Amino acid sequence: MTTNNKELVVEKIDNGTVIDHIPADRVFKIVKILGLDTYEDEVLIGTNLCSKKYGKKGILKIKNKYFTQDETDKIAIIAPTATIIVIKDYEVTEKKNLVLPKHITKIVKCINPNCITNVEEIETNFDVVNTDPISIQCHYCEKTMEEIIFNE
Ligand code: CTP
Ligand code: ZN
């Protein structure tokens, strides 16, 4: 919707989820971990947008999609400052700030190839030992990781 020659306003969505206040350098990582690169409905991606609070921010608007707790935890790990806005029939029905869980199970992979979770069919389990920057420790092999690898 064009309002004048200088301004282009991104339209509101009827149903779906808006992920706002994403650090600009994490937008495409969020796109990837949520599998939005192969999502078949409308996705609006904004990055390097000006924000008073965060400097440069990113925003994603995903039509007809609501995220599970596991997906929400993945977003919290990558972009803890993000806000999840649930839209139903054009109205904001829920707005939540993300919370980094204290324990992370199954969604993250242990980087130690010898860890039992990589050898046997055992769900991973990590303690979050530091939040910013994030650092997690494997419950089984005690390996500490700063780089997070998600399970598919
Ligand atoms: N939004 C949308 N479609 C809707 C309603 C809202 O895409 N039907 C988007 C808005 O563009 C905005 C976000 O959801 O990016 C939050 O909407 P709202 O709470 O109405 O906006 P603000 O009050 O400006 O939010 P804030 O001050 O928290 O940034
Ligand atoms: Zn391990």
Structure notes:
This protein has 152 residues and is mainly beta. The chain folds into 2 domains: 10-97, Aspartate carbamoyltransferase regulatory subunit, N-terminal domain (Alpha-Beta Plaits); 103-150, Roll (SH3 type barrels), CATH 2.30.30. The chain has helices spanning 27-33, 69-78, 116-119; strands at 16-23, 43-51, 55-63, 83-88, 91-97, 103-105, 108-109, 125-131, 134-138, 144-145, 149-150. The strands form 3 sheets. The protein has a 5-stranded antiparallel β-sheet, with no helix packed on it. A 4-stranded antiparallel β-sheet has the order 6-8-9-10, with no helix packed on it. A hairpin with a 3-residue loop joins strand 2 and strand 3 (55-63). The protein is elongated and about 60 Å long. It binds cytidine-5'-triphosphate and zinc ion. The site of cytidine-5'-triphosphate has 9 residues, from strand 1 and strand 4. Cytidine-5'-triphosphate is lined by residues 12-13, 18, 20, 61, 85, 87, 90, 92.
